[in-house]
Queue: 3 jobs
Job 1
Amino acid sequence: MTELTLEKLRSLVDLEIDEFSLEDFRRRHQIAGDSPNFHQYIQKLLEQKYIKRVRRATYRKVKIVKPIKIFGRERRPIISLNPPVDRETLEPLSFFNDIVLRQGDLWMLSGFKNKGKTNMCMNIMAENLDKKPILMGNEYTIMGEGGEYEPSPRFLNRLDSMDWVQWVNEQDEERFELLPVYQDFAEQIRPGGFYIIDWINLPGEYYMISPILEEIKRALGNGIAIVVLQKNPGVDYGRGGNPSKDFVDAEILLDPYGDDPTMTMLTVGNVKETRTPIMGHKFAYKIKNGVKIIDFREVVKCGNCFGKGWRNNRPCDVCNKLGYVDKPI
């Protein structure tokens, strides 16, 4: 090749896709091993932060980042999601619209086993079919006998039981999409969609939850997602610990409420933006027939036992050991 110069070497580096080894680089561009100044120019590119050493004799191009224009841009409106509804009173769940939802937001729903995580997701989906929700995760599909994925029997039963919902339009087209995706969720996300991922399994690799959520959030673009995690009772985070909160814009926690298996306590966790102070507020409700949210109301700590459920070594007779009572209207 012609005499190697710094500018010539820079132009050859521009042709590389990402990482490259010096040996392969020389062979591709026919640079002799005894070419004068080669290593000196490589060192110059390192000093100029044009390339970066990733390991011995292997480098990658440094991405050139351009400043983003801030002012003069159109301000994007807040996204409006219709809240789930108490099926007896037909009143919307009161906390829902106090949380501000913006493009690119990721909501986390962390709940104890059988405490209504999928029930909440499906009730949110039912009220927002105009946004063509896309379902993924471990809860909705199974491998059928023919080797193809199909809706799980329990999911189909839930759809049938939610008989107040029109799941198809006038052309008999489904108003939501179901994808058999159990991992690598970000690869299937297209910017601008409304995704419900119920739920993410982390078999012993709980430390992976933060990078998984980061990938999902980056892939959303101007879309939104509700992601479900399993949770142990009495803690304020899903499996994966506090790192599960790193990329979350709003958090909802579901726990048992007393001994009645149909009762659930909902806690509003960390929220980045609210219309009114709502973080830490708690609500109780009953799940009827596995799908209906009923008797939804806000609860507060019992003033007699201070939330412990016991007073003077006896069950509290004000809250019946719940530790909470209905908030006075």
Job 2
Amino acid sequence: MYNPIAPGDSISSTWGNAVEKALGYGTPAQAYNYVMWKDAGIYYARNGLTGERTENASFKILMNDKILELYGSTGLGTGGSIYLYPGAYYVDGSINMRPAVHIFGSARNGYDTDLTKLSCQINATTDTSIFKFDFPDAGKSYHTGLHFMTLNGANLATTNPCIDIVCGTQNAADIMLFDLGPINAKYGIRVSNTHASNSIWNVFIKRCFIESNTYNGILVDSSTDQNIFQCRFLENHFYGNNTTGGNGAIEIDGHETRGGIISNNTFELENVNGIYLADEADGWVIANNVIIDAGQKTTNTYSGISLNDVDLCSVTGNVSIYRANNKMKYGYYADNNCTYLAVLGNVFKGQTAGAVFGTGTGNIGDATMNVSTT
């Protein structure tokens, strides 16, 4: 960094250009491959090695150009990192992520309207995803990520997510989404695979605030039964998603979505189910989550945790209750098609019943092994 900056310091919108004037054009002074900022409606990118500066009136064009440069036009680049100074950025189409490229914002803003205090927010201006992981080249894994920024669909991304991870002509692995704020889109984050032979694995979502999306906060969808496995969703907060559709703030749906972890997340005032697994989404660990007042959309209809035709899951140490109202039907629900579930040491409280444990084969856990109350 050019100068040490403490959280809360005020930074003018022309700070990047002021540094340019102090150091001189072309001065290499950054640890990142590129640093970017906005000044007077123009977006700038400075090369951290050579100091060369480029500019464009379109943030999308400038970002895609630098990402492709780091990746290499034939996929032979070494990858690298891009840092975004504090401020509000606007995109009129998707930023296309590529393998081995990481994007760092200055900080997720948490709805802070003052974007001069180390906050970074990227806003959609059209109905497109903000970032898209779309796997253009066969044989390339991703090993890439987004960090420390708010992604605002601005209620314009009505059919798209803030972040779209789609398996196409290659496998996708080790995608890291840390400290983000995907808000105000159809989906916060969507992970989907319809490819006949390739897989998505190790999508790692941590410490994100995922709020006010009209469908799911996180949707993992294998609609044609293709592999999506070993995903990790840890320490995130969910609030007010699913106002229009979808089955849960986290929804895992499909035969080959298996072997993941949903742990240490918090859910507050979700409109439908907090956590929803269906259609043989097997082998998940659901542990140490706190779900309060799910089911706000319709009284006595939804559950904190809802499992439907899934097997081989561990559900331990969760608290799923209503507190401010009594709209949530069950703290926990498992249908009779669920088998080999271990449901132990949870606290469930619902309007109709604390929990429905199901009668599937091989299940362990009932009202004597959990707190289940109305």
Job 3
Amino acid sequence: MTGMMVFEHIVNNVPTTNIPPFIMQSENGAGLKAENLPQRTAVELIFRELGALSEMQTAVTILTSGNVTIGFDATAQEGVHVTTVHNTTRMLCRCCGLTFRWYGGRLH
């Protein structure tokens, strides 16, 4: 459960410093005993591994498929501009790049 909570916080752009305390609060709030919480360094290693896994999955998809379409898509909704890069084979589609830009803001 803790690993999935780390993943959810990373996906939702929670700063790595805040993830262990948030997990502790969530587990205590659910009536669970918060044990073996990951430290910030472990959270940062998980973050790097997820990036490496995403790159590896994208590379494997491209290299093992005879025909791959690489697409770019952009949309704006509720003040956020989202740009994705994805590759599609006959059987699957993988997102291999994603950026967010708040209107008038910086890239995230």
